[in-house]
């Protein structure tokens, strides 16, 4: 069973930066200050999953962009502590992001490393499709990324 999904707080920034360094060591992991800056943004939502000891084991963020007919959302990041992977933490975080996106309206976009099969499968199960490839997207490693998108709720036949 996973812990609770909660809004990220400034106090979570150090833990999220610690996880970034473990998860993305060759792709410019975000420092704590980057998370703090993101939390100050008016159009972003960030979440963490906490275990019973209140320690964050995963984090995720999304930008809610545009207004009216020009709305869209962009997943900024999802990261899960390796010790907590394959337990539904990533899916719970993605569900929280997609709930925010559906309230906002419009399609959702994200980039994912082309070699990250577990994440690609997670996104596919959530309704995303690969729509392109960005060569050397991740720096400094130079890894390629797929661009994936999930249509707006109304074009999927659902309702926000």
TrEMBL record:
This is Ribosomal-protein-alanine N-acetyltransferase. It is an enzyme of class 2 (transferase). CDD domains: NAT_SF. PANTHER family: AMINOALKYLPHOSPHONATE N-ACETYLTRANSFERASE-RELATED-RELATED. Keywords: Acyltransferase, Transferase. The keyword Transferase applies. One of its GO terms (molecular function) is protein-N-terminal-alanine acetyltransferase activity. Its EC number is 2.3.1.267. The keyword Repressor does not apply. SUPFAM superfamilies: Acyl-CoA N-acyltransferases (Nat). NCBIfam families: rimI. InterPro entries: AcTrfase_RimI/Ard1, Acyl_CoA_acyltransferase, Bact_Acetyltransf, GNAT_dom. Residues 3-153 form the N-acetyltransferase domain.
């Amino acid at each position: 069973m996973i812990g609770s999904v909660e809004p990220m707080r400034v106090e979570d920034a150090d833990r999220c930066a610690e996880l970034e360094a473990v998860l993305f060591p060759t792709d410019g992991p975000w420092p704590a200050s980057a998370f703090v800056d993101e939390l100050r943004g008016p159009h972003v939502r960030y979440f963490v999953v906490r275990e019973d000891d209140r320690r964050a084991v995963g984090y995720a963020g999304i930008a809610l962009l545009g207004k009216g007919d020009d709305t869209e959302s962009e997943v900024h990041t999802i990261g899960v502590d390796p010790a907590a992977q394959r337990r539904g933490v990533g899916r719970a975080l993605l569900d929280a992001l997609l709930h925010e996106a559906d309230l906002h309206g419009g399609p959702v976009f994200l980039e994912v490393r082309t070699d990250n099969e577990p994440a690609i499968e997670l996104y596919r199960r959530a309704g995303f499709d690969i729509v392109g490839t960005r060569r050397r997207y991740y720096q400094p490693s130079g890894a390629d990324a797929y661009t994936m998108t999930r249509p707006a709720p109304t074009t999927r036949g659902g309702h926000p």
